[in-house]
Amino acid sequence: MDLLNLFGKKPSTKNIAKERLKLVLIHDRVNCSTQVLEMLKTDIIRVISNYMEIDEEELDIQITQTQSEDSNGNVPMLYANIPIKSMRKVQM
Q1: Which parts of the chain fold into alpha helices (H)?
Q2: Which residues of 25-59 are buried (b: 16+ CB within 10 A; e: fewer)?
Q3: Nearest 10 degrees: CA dihedral of 45, 48, 49, 53?
Q4: Which of 16, 32, 38, 49 has the highest CB neighbour number within 10 Å of its CB?
Q5: Whole-angstrom Cα distance, residue 64 to residue 61?
Q6: Per residue in 5-57, pLDDT tens?
Q7: Domain boundaries, the chain
Q8: Which residue has the higher pLDDT, 78 or 51?
Q9: Closest Cα to residue 14, out of 26, 25, 6, 22?
Q10: CA–CA distance, 32 with 63 (Å, rounded to integer)
Q11: How open is the CA angle 36-79-49, to the nearest 5 degrees?
Q12: What is the C-alpha R_g of the chain?
């Protein structure tokens, strides 16, 4: 989360462009097209919705990079922030 957003300041267009470029490069490096990411998002929503009611408007799923625990390099990471409204009763 950008600290500037907490205080009501809008990020500069330079920073917005920089973040978008990072996302494009990450998606390119892991061979994940926008279509594949949307298919993943749809599948995740479908499966999780079987067990809980979620807020799809606030849903955030993206591919980012993180530091590898095993080596000094970066690895792709699927990040999902899924707000849960309530749990569904599941019949077993």
Answers
A1: 3-6, 13-29, 34-49
A2: ebbeeeeeeeeebeeebeebeeeeeeeeebeeeee
A3: -110
A4: 32
A5: 10
A6: 455 556 678 777 777 776 666 666 666 677 877 888 889 889 999 899 999 88
A7: 33-92
A8: 51
A9: 22
A10: 9
A11: 75
A12: 16
Angle ∠(8,78,91) on CA atoms, nearest 5: 105
Using a cut of 0.70, tell me whether the model's pTM lies above it.
no
Q: Measure the CA–CA gap between 40 and 87, rounded to whole angstroms.
A: 22
d(CA 67, CA 36): 23
How close are the terminal C-alpha atoms of the chain, in Å? 39
